[in-house]
Amino acid sequence: MEGVAWAAHKYIMHGFGWGWHKSHHEDTEGIFEKNDLYAAVFSVLAIVLFAVASQGHPLIGAIAIGVTLYGAFYFIVHDGLVHQRWPFRNIPHRGYAKRLVQAHRLHHAVEGKDGCVSFGFLYAPPVEKLSAELRQRGTVAAEKRGRSASPVNKAPTIH
Ligand SMILES: [Zn+2]
Ligand SMILES: [Zn+2]
Questions:
Q1: How far is the CA of 158 from the centre of ligand 1 (A)?
Q2: Which ligand is nearest the CA of 5, by number?
Q3: Is the pLDDT of residue 92 over 80?
Q4: Which residues contact 92 (CB under 8 A, 6 or more apart)?
Q5: Which ligand is nearest to the CA of 118?
Q6: pTM for the model
Q7: Ligand 1 centroid to 25 CA: how many Å?
Q8: Residue 89's pLDDT is what?
Q9: What CA–CA distance (Å, rounded) separates 107 from 24?
Q10: Using an 8 Å Cβ cutoff, are 136 and 53 in contact?
């Protein structure tokens, strides 16, 4: 499922499906963002798979359970922990959980749909590796801006 999610994120959501996913890479107001429609699509997919499985296809049932579990985990960890849509008090400071959060934060370090890293979720590469990859591409939004005005001598912006 991680492989499927990675491919869907990289080629669909950052491809022709950017229209929905864009909302997740921008600041949005309100509780819902357009990107949540993907969760709805995956839920419907899981329901269809369960329906097929009930007709005597146990293998499809196993896939349906996999999709559902992945979706639940993603909903809790990605939406809740990483993006703070749930009132989690503690941000993990060590181990795998910390790496997972950092890796996904780096996915959001790039503005726009191209040049992003870390499309997967469960498999979180070490931060150093992702940072190096980003630096090499030079696509980090903050760095891009920094090229025209360094943050040290930049006048404070009034919003
Ligand atoms: Zn994305
Ligand atoms: Zn995210």
A1: 29
A2: 1
A3: yes
A4: 81, 98, 100, 101
A5: 1
A6: 0.82
A7: 7
A8: 75
A9: 11
A10: no
Distance 78 CA to ligand 2 centre (A): 6
What is the CA(100)–ligand 1 centre distance, in A?
15
Q: Which residues contact 53 (CB under 8 A, 6 or more apart)?
A: 60, 61, 64
Identity of the amino acid at 120: G
In 3-state terms, what secondary structure has residue 140? strand
d(CA 85, CA 78): 9
Identify any residues that bridge with 110 across adjacent strands, giving them in sequence order. Answer: 140
**CA gyration radius for the chain?**
18
The residue type found at 109 is A
Q: What is the pLDDT of residues 132-153, one digit of tens each?
A: 998 888 877 666 666 554 444 4
What's the confidence (pLDDT) of residue 159?
54
Q: What 3-state DSSP class applies to 100?
A: helix
Is the predicted pLDDT of residue 158 greater than 90, yes or no? no
DSSP state of 99: H
Token representation of residue 127: 């931060």
β-sheet bridge partners, residue 140? 110
CB-CB contact of 84 with 31 (8 Å): no
Which residue, 82, 141, 151, is CA-closest to 116? Answer: 141
